[in-house]
Amino acid sequence: MSSDNFSSPPHNDEEDWMTTAPDADLPGMMVQRAESRTPAPSGPSGGDAVQPVQVRDSSGLVRLLPTAVPGRRVLLGIVGAPGAGKSTVAATLASLNPAGHKQVPMDGFHLADQALIGLGLLDRKGAPETFDAHGYAALLSRLRGAPGHTVYAPAFERDLEQPLANALPIPASASMLITEGNYLLLDAPGWREARAQLDEVWFLDVEPDVRRRRLIARHILFGKEPAAAQEWVRQVDEPNAALVNATRASADRILDVSDWTMA
To answer: What is the pLDDT of residue 219?
Structure first.
């Protein structure tokens, strides 16, 4: 159950640790998508390996956005270990063009506690097997097709610690969809199909100690005792982080957000 906001209640089960003011609206951006897409360790600029790009604020994100191609909807993935700042970066990208950019968080596909109890996985909540990866891939595929009507995506309700169906309206006019989550690059059933729907995936780097402190503070903010928060980070969040970090080389871009500043 990844998390990292310790200043204000987050919007989903990932992280909202950086606060930025919306920039001026930018035109909707579209991107040409290859007919067949498989993750590879070379980014959009080419090369044998992706080199990290330091990003400190929203202006650093703007210059990295995919190249616009009229008539095609962009699906951009934001991935990183628990506490890396995925939801904050995704929200910042959405704020660049509120009418055209919409968030579709992976966390809406958490299995409900009732399902997790039946599977014996409640104490692993947040691990890959506690999500409906195939359902997530199916929604991304549906959104990729840019239907001529509003599609309603699920969200994750932090106060309830449960997914909330049909909570996020994605209008037909949305030109860019930003989806954030831990496992967008995971080489496993369901996750591979989800990755195939994305034009680019950006991996977020941040100092591990900073990331862990955020996670502990976030768990405490939402009701865990300090000792329990530390134990959850050790037993659940950190193994998940290791799994996510192992997918780093498959990202199209790597963003170092350790020095992100408030706008």
So the answer is: 86
